[in-house]
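Re-run requested by the PI after the first attempt was lost when the workstation crashed. Everything re-entered from the original request form. Ligand of interest: 5-phosphoarabinonic acid.
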Amino acid sequence: MTKMTEFGGIKLDVSATEPFLSAAELDAMAPAVNAAAAELEEGTGPGSEYLGWMDLPETITEDDFQAIEASAARAQKDSQVYVVIGIGGSYLGSRAVLDALRGMETDSRTGYPEIIFAGTGLCSSMLNRVLSKCTGRNFRICMISKSGTTLEPAVAFRTLRGILMEKFGSTEAARRITAVTDGTRGALRQLADSEGFETFAIPDNVGGRFSVLTPVGLVPLAAAGIDVRAVVDGARKMRAACQSTELRNNPAHLYAAVRHGLYTRGFTTEVMSTFHGDLQTIQEWWKQLFGESEGKGGEGIFPASAVFTTDLHSMGQYIQDGRRNLQETFLCVRNAVSRLTVPSDDSEGGNLDGLNYLAGRTLDDINWKAFEGTKSAHGAGGVPCTSLEMDSITPEVMGGLIYMFEKAVGISGRLLGVNPFDQPGVETYKKEMFRLLGKPE
Ligand code: PA5
């Protein structure tokens, strides 16, 4: 029986996990996976107050789209730089989609502001670089924080808002700030209402890492000129595909089942590998989604990532031959946009590098062979490999991929017996840091 499912330009191939998890063992997981999915659909189980993400592709309205597009049009008209301030779930999703779609950029995309991200840490040189990019240019700020109190974005916002006010005066500065935050509560909501910033509300029932399809992800993406309707449409189609109770016809169910089955057999780290540099931020978003959702109560698959072929020259050794607790998921792109080929060199002594046998072949074709060779080598080395192969990277495919991972992690949390929608562990470091900083109670 085939162990592959294909949907919306995304193909999930689990055939190389067979030596480690047989078809019968995989099949036997279907009832548990269906039960977990049913719990999510019925809105029951731990964290059920945070299941709003499931319906986002359906509940977004024409008015929502128009408000987001109008905000984007204003930014495109008056700004060369659009600074997105946020951390964790408040920026990783939009950045991931934006970076993934970079390969689609052509000259016809000029006229959109440069999107830069700030507030993603406390490193002064990073913030300095953002400030330099804003110097002498017209810019806007999109401040994203559900709680409105997170330290890193708050520091960046205070700094950048000060510069905006100095440059434009307080009235125009307020017009150049968009706040994406809680609908009624929190410091940012209060400030936005009192200063008259443009605002977008984050639904109460959607947690940070599940918020890409809310204004958290869609406002910055629209400002960058991404077709957000297509992103949502891809998610809507994937949502429909993820209703099937046939394990192999449901990409989220199949992915959740395979990785969980491998986890229970000792494959406790999942490396997401890609041969496509533009997907590096999707890996980061995926690590947050899975790490924060699963890693609790002593449970959870540790999510790691590698970008090949460069990491084959570093992490490749460990993956091939280190401790055998690794499972690997390849995120691949079949048709990249660029058609760069290897040049022929017929000059005297020109083939000293021995590359003429590749002359005329596209880099992407060679890259694909590198993927196939690596998958085969890692499998032979004892790493169960799954691959998620995309025909090409489009806004629609990105929306589908996001929804598929979200659904899979919801199911996975249920299979692990943890609440996948909270993150109590992230408070511990904050308490220590604030104590050291002398934060008033
Ligand atoms: O997934 C999460 O909930 C976190 O990553 C948050 O998004 C992150 O900590 C930022 O929080 P906030 O949006 O409240 O500033």
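Saved to the shared folder this time. The mean pLDDT is 94.
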